[in-house]
Amino acid sequence: MTDSLSISTDALTKQYGSTTAVNDLNLAIPSGAIYGFLGPNGAGKTTTIRMLTTLITPTSGTAHIVGESITDRQAVVSHIGYLPEEPPLYDELTAREQLEYHGGLRDMNPSEIEERIDSLLDRFDLTTDADNRISTYSKGMKQKTGLIQALMHQPNVVILDEPTSGLDPRAARTVRETIAELAASDTTVFLSTHILPVVEELATEVGILYEGELVAEGSPDALKERMETGEEGTLEDVFLDVTTDEAHDERTTEPERTGQPE
Ligand SMILES: Nc1ncnc2c1ncn2[C@@H]1O[C@H](COP(=O)(O)OP(=O)(O)OP(=O)(O)O)[C@@H](O)[C@H]1O
């Protein structure tokens, strides 16, 4: 069952002491989806991503990436490309060296490494700076290098945390186009961002997390319809509607009400 899904979680939960950062999360994301993962600050998005990328262990529950359990770090890591909020880069290297090093870690062959680096540097307008040290880069240039690093080994699942953060409008557009192309070639994109218009434009499915729980899920259109935001409604309206304590209280009492006659 989980084999047909790119990302699946079953009652995934993470507690830090008395704080439940992620509570009983169930996701079923098919291959080629662009899944917009939303939630206010502290909702549990990064914690979820860190579990999916095997960086932290769940307190309970399970998760699979392309059918591989997150308990099998090596298998999972071979399927994913991950861009965290702060890209993991060595400041003393140049972007080209960093990417060559990463390609080696990913067991890519040298000619494939050079080919992918050249084409991605070109796509993200980084060719002229590729042989300068990362320590001299702007935030946006580091972000682009991190993104190339996440994509260069052509993973099945790409997990992006605020991928357009710090990018100028042209670079941000390139990132959006790249995300759409990845999905068109059946790569699954798990996209966490606070920039809701990007999600509205790209996502096939959206999940909204609030206080560690998934409080709404569906296509952007379906969510807007369900929330009766009206024709002018946006994903932001849906987001603001479901991420309040009042909405949360209503939801938790809802099961008792649904069985009652009107
Ligand atoms: N290492 C940790 N130790 C203790 N508590 C933590 C730790 N990491 C996260 N938390 C707590 O878990 C909850 C979820 O945090 P998380 O970073 O996953 O949220 P987020 O949705 O990614 O937020 P943001 O949008 O601000 O990045 C918060 O209450 C946070 O304080």
From TrEMBL:
Q: Where is the ABC transporter domain?
A: 7-236
SMART domains according to UniProt: AAA
Superkingdom of source: Archaea
Report keywords, A-Z. ATP-binding, Nucleotide-binding, Transport
Bias-annotated ranges (Basic and acidic residues)? 245-262
Q: Which InterPro entries match?
A: AAA+_ATPase, ABC_transporter-like_ATP-bd, ABC_Transporter_VariousFunc, P-loop_NTPase
GO-annotated molecular function: ATP binding; ATP hydrolysis activity
Q: RNA-binding: present as a keyword of the record? A: no
Map out region (Disordered) in residue numbers.
226-262
Could you confirm whether the keyword ATP-binding appears in this record?
yes
- Renumbered to this chain, the Acidic residues biased-composition regions fall at 230-239
Q: Which PANTHER family match?
A: ABC TRANSPORTER ATP-BINDING PROTEIN ALBC-RELATED (PTHR42939:SF1)
Its name, as the record gives it, is ABC transporter ATP-binding protein
Which organism is this entry from? Halocatena pleomorpha
Organism lineage reads as: Archaea, Methanobacteriati, Methanobacteriota, Stenosarchaea group, Halobacteria
